[in-house]
Amino acid sequence: MTGEREPIGVIGVGWVGLVTAACFAELGHEVIARDIVPEKVEALARGETTIHEPGLSELLARNAERLTFTTDMGQLLERARLLFTCVDTPPTRSGDADLSRVRSVVADLSGGDHVLVMKSTVPAGTGASIRRDRPGLPYVSCPEFLKEGTAVEDFMHPDRVVIGADPGDEGAGDAVARLYEPLGGEIVRTDVASAEMIKLASNAFLATKISFVNEIANVCEEVGADVGEVARGMGLDQRIGPAFLRAGIGYGGSCFPKDVSALKMLAGNSGYHFQLLGAVIEVNELQKRRVVGKLQKHLGSLAGKRVALLGLAFKPDTDDMREASSLVLAARLQGEGATVVAYDPVAVDAAQGLLDGVEFRASALEALEGADAAVLVTEWPEFAALDWRKAGERMTRPLLVDGRNFLDSAALREAGFEYEGIGRAVESSVPAGTAE
Ligand code: UDX
C-alpha cells in the first residue's frame, strides 16, 4: 500500500463523478478527474461548476489546488491507483443498462496496479463479467446512494457505505474502506454481486414505496381520506418509517426510472419475472397523467385552455430534467389541446428543447397570468411563499392542482382558489405541514 494520501482517480465527471471528486478533495486527497467531453473539462478547469448542486461550487473553489480535470486518461492512469468509475449507464431501448461506457473504461486500463472502483450503477453480474474478462484487475463495487440536491451532504454523512470485493481483492476493498472511514457511516463489506444488488434493490424499494403511497392516495380520493394523514399514521410504525411516503405525480430523475427498469430486465434476462416492479413502473406512468383528469373534472375539455406548470425539474434544488414528470404532463396537456406555459426557478435552460411548444416565463406570477388552471409540479420553496391572492387575481380561473401536496390547501381556498391535491379530500381542511 502506498502513502496515506495517494491521489484518487475519478473517471466521468457527470453528477456522481463531480460530487465524488469534490468531496474527496475536501477530505484532503489529491484528485485527478477525467472526462471525454472537452468543453466540460475546460469549464471545470476554469472554475465553473457544470451542474446545479448545493454546496458543490464552494467545494470545488475551496479545493481547486487539489483537483485536476483532464481529458487525458494517460495522465490519470499515471498518477492514480484507485479509479472511481462514475460514467453513466443509461437505459437502452430494451430497458437494460447500457454498459458501453463502462466497457470502454475497462478497455483503457492496461497494466499497472490499478483498482477499478465501480460507482456507476450496473446490473448485478457486471463485476463478475469484468473480472472474467480481465483477470488480475482488482475490482471493487462501491455504489453511490447520493440524492440530487443534497449530494454533498449525503457524501459527507452517509447512512452507509457499501464496499463489495471478491476473494483476492480484499486489499483493494480495504483501501477503498479507508477513504470512507473518516465519514463515520456504517461500512458494509460484502461480495461484488451483493453490493451491486444492494444498490438496485434500495432504489427499487424506494420507488415501490412511492408507487404504493400514490395508489393509497388514489384510493383516499375515492373514500374521502387524506393521504398525508394516512402516511403520517403509517410512518410512525418503525417497521414502515416516514420517508418516501409523499404522494404526488410520480417519481422521476436519473436513477429511479432507470434502475427499476434495469432490475426488472435483469431479473427477466435471468428467467425471473419480477411482477411487483412491473406494477411500480405502471403506477408511476399513470400517476403523471392523473392530473389531466383532475383538470378536466373542473374545466371540461382542455382544448384552448391555458395551463401553467409551476416547476419543471424532477424535484426541487436541481435543474435535472431527466424523466421529470413535467415532460409527460406537458405533452399530455398539449395532446388535449391545451396551451402550456411554464416556470421553473432553475431548470428552464435544461427544459428548453425538451418541451416543444411550451411557453416559458421568468416568474410564477407571469406564468399564471391569464391561466385557466395551474399545476404545481415541483415543490420549490418559493411557491409556498407566493402571494396566492395576487396570483389568483391574475388568473382567468383560480384553479390549482397541487401535484406535490405542498401548499396549504385551506390558505389557498381562503385566497379564492379551487384547490385539489393528490389523495387529499377535496374539502379537507387539514393544515399543510401535518402531512409528512
Ligand atoms: C435517488 C436515490 O434516493 C439515491 O439514493 C440514488 O443514489 C439516486 O436516486 P434522486 O434521484 O436524487 O436520488 O432523488 P430522490 O430524492 O430519491 O427522489 C426521486 C424522485 O422520487 C423524485 O421525483 C421525487 O419527487 C420523488 N419522490 C420522493 C416522491 O414522489 N415521493 C417521496 O416520498 C419521495
Structure, explained:
β7 (160-165), α8 (170-180) and β8 form a beta-alpha-beta unit. This protein has 436 residues and is α/β, with parallel strands linked by helices. The strands form 2 sheets. Strands 3-2-1-4-5-6-7-8 form an 8-stranded mixed β-sheet, with helices on both faces. A 6-stranded parallel β-sheet has the order 11-10-9-12-13-14. The chain is built from 18 helices and 14 strands. Residues 428-436 have low confidence and may be disordered. The chain starts with 7 loop residues before the first strand and ends in a 16-residue tail after the last strand. It binds uridine-5'-diphosphate-xylopyranose. Uridine-5'-diphosphate-xylopyranose binds next to α9.
Q: State Rg.
A: 23 Å
Q: Class by helix and strand content?
A: alpha/beta
Number of contiguous helices: 18
The percent of residues in helical segments reads: 40-55%
| Beta-strand percent range | 5-15%
What bound compounds does this protein have?
Answer: uridine-5'-diphosphate-xylopyranose
In order across it, which strands form the biggest sheet? 3-2-1-4-5-6-7-8
Largest sheet data: 8 strands, mixed
Mean pLDDT: 94
Count the E strands.
Answer: 14
Q: Segments where pLDDT lies below 50 for 5+ residues?
A: 428-436
What would you call the shape?
globular
Give the N-to-C terminal Cα separation. 48 Å
Task: Compile the SSE list and pairings.
Layout: E1 8-11, H1 15-26, E2 31-34, H2 38-45, H3 56-62, E3 67-70, H4 73-79, E4 82-85, H5 100-108, E5 115-118, H6 126-133, E6 139-141, H7 151-156, E7 160-165, H8 170-180, E8 186-190, H9 192-223, H10 227-235, H11 256-269, H12 275-299, E9 306-310, H13 325-335, E10 339-343, H14 348-351, E11 359-360, H15 364-368, E12 373-376, H16 381-384, H17 388-394, E13 399-402, H18 409-414, E14 418-420
Parallel strand pairs: 1-2, 1-4, 2-3, 4-5, 5-6, 7-8, 9-10, 9-12, 10-11, 12-13, 13-14
Antiparallel strand pairs: 6-7
Residues 144-148, 203, 206, 210, 244-246, 248, 251-253, 255-256, 314-315 line the site of uridine-5'-diphosphate-xylopyranose (UDX).
